Amino acid sequence: MILVDTCVLVDVIEEDPIWSGWSQATLDEWGRRGPVCINPVVYAELSPDFDDPAALDGLLGKAGIEYREIPREALFLAARAHQAYRRRGGERSGVLPDFFIGAHARVANVPLLTRDPRRFRAAFPDLVLVAP
After folding, report:
1. How far apart are CA 132 and CA 30, in angstroms?
2. What pLDDT sits at residue 94?
3. What is the pLDDT, as a whole number, of residue 109?
4. What's the pLDDT score for residue 96?
5. 24 vs 13: CA distance, rounded Å
6. Is 122 helix (H, G, I), strand (E, B) or coil?
7. How far is the first Cα of the chain from the last one, in angstroms, to the nearest whole number?
8. Staple 56 to which of 13, 30, 39, 50, CB 3.0 to 4.6 Å?
9. What's the pLDDT at 90?
């Protein structure tokens, strides 16, 4: 199993001229190894690009991407990691979703597929990242 960060799916959905090739190839590669999953945070971040949940669910189903809930242990870990980030001087208020995603992968002990590894490495140094 691998958990996928929103940016990777947006690359493919929006056919990003720079990143869509890498993102699609990496999704395909990991799809051959086992489940490719998202969580509620990624689902919510993708939702504005769709007219209704059925459209998003249809795309995810067609792509073979599974939905997994975030365990409570991961929610707790995310809050602690975000608190530590803020204490180190982090000021962006919109980063909490990244902590939910990273903590979920960490607690599930699965790799995280992302194009933005910097914050995940800082917050979860033992998390396995699949990144360019």
Report:
1. 14
2. 60
3. 98
4. 86
5. 10
6. helix
7. 19
8. 50
9. 83
Amino acid at 70: I
CB count in 10 Å sphere of residue 98: 24
Q: Let me know if 116 is exposed, middle or buried by CB neighbors in 10 A (0-12, 13-18, 19+).
A: middle
Under DSSP, the state recorded for 23 is: H
The domain segmentation of the chain, as residue ranges, is 2-130
CATH code linked to domain 2-130? 3.40.50.1010
| β-strand partners of 129 | 112
Long-range CB pairs of 57-61 (<8 Å, 24+ gap) are 59/13
Spans of the chain, pLDDT less than 70: 92-95
Cα distance between residue 73 and residue 78, in whole Å: 9
DSSP string, 77-116: HHHHHHHHHHHTT---GGGHHHHHHHHHHHHHT--EE-S-
Q: Tell how strand 2-4 and strand 112-113 pair up.
A: parallel
